[in-house]
Amino acid sequence: MSQVHAEAYLDPGTPEEQSRRAFMANATIVLGTVIGLVIGVPLLAYSVPGKKINELSSEAWSPVDEADWTKLTTSTAPLKISFTRKTTDGYFLPEATSDYVWGVKMSDAQYAKMKAERTDLFPPDATKAEQVPYMDEIFVAGYVIFSSICPHLGCRFAWDDSKNIFFCPCHNSTYNRDGERTGGPAPRGLDPLPLREQSGKAEITWIRYKSSTPDRVVVSYS
Predict the structure, then answer these.
(1) pLDDT confidence of 45, banded at 50, 70, 90?
(2) 76 DSSP 8-state letter
(3) Domain for residue 52, yes or no?
(4) 120 domain residue, yes or no
(5) Shortest CA distance to 178 belongs to which of 100, 119, 130, 117?
(6) Which of 16, 73, 82, 104 could form an S-S bond across to 65 if both were Cys, CB 3.0 to 4.6 Å?
(7) CA 111 to CA 116: how far, in whole Å?
């Protein structure tokens, strides 16, 4: 009986059967190709950064929370200012992420004092000033914005009103109201962020700097 079965497998069948099998095989190949195109083309188009993705990624300015900003206009102490930044992950469309910075209200005299003390931002050597290319956007309309990330290892610091300092609880780095480092292992002072007024609203650019280095090395913008 096994020989009969073996011979059956070797039998090519009638011309009609051969034609039907060939048709089914070709149809399967065509159908597989169509399905591959239907699935693959959109995925390929989505994986390539198109004009829309690039445009969204280039929107670096983010408006700050109006209620927080209103409080800052009447506060002598630094305040936490909320905003929404755009986070881009590879080739995906940017996503909105809630974050915060620290806003400091300053007079012209206070800012002049900050410039004199913060030699890491305003070095006597003009060639080093290129480390912060947005000098004209640090002090705008009487305000300075600091990143909320400690330059030591990337922890979040806070304002201690009782001691009149910024304090990072991770490794005890401290900074004065101007962002100058006054203690702890942080390699530099607080990082200022670009600030501008647009249509009557305050906007900032979020910049992530590399930690644990005295130089300001940009990691990302958003």
Answers:
(1) very low
(2) S
(3) no
(4) yes
(5) 117
(6) 82
(7) 9
Location of structure tokens 């607080």:
190
For residue 87, the one-letter residue type is T
Domain carrying residue 21: 2-47
Flag whether 164 is in a domain.
yes
Quick count: other Cβ atoms within 10 Å of Cβ 69?
Answer: 18
Say what percent of the chain tops pLDDT 90.
55
Integer Cα distance of 217 and 181 in angstroms? 18
Question: What average pLDDT does the segment 11-36 reach?
Answer: 64
Per residue in 149-177, pLDDT (tens digit) is 999 999 999 999 999 999 999 999 999 99
Q: What is the 3-state secondary structure (H, E, C) of 148-200?
A: CECCCCCCECEEECCCCEEECCCCCCEECCCCCEEECCCCCCCCEECEEEECC
Asked if residue 85 and residue 15 are part of one domain, the reply reads no
118: left (phi over 0), alpha (psi -120 to 50) or beta: beta
What gap in Å lies between CA 4 and CA 7, rounded to an integer? 5
Do 34 and 69 fall into the same domain?
no
The amino acid that residue 189 corresponds to is: G
Buried b (16+ CB within 10 A) or exposed e, 101-120: bbbbbbeeebbeebeeebeb
Is the domain of 13 the same as that of 119? Answer: no
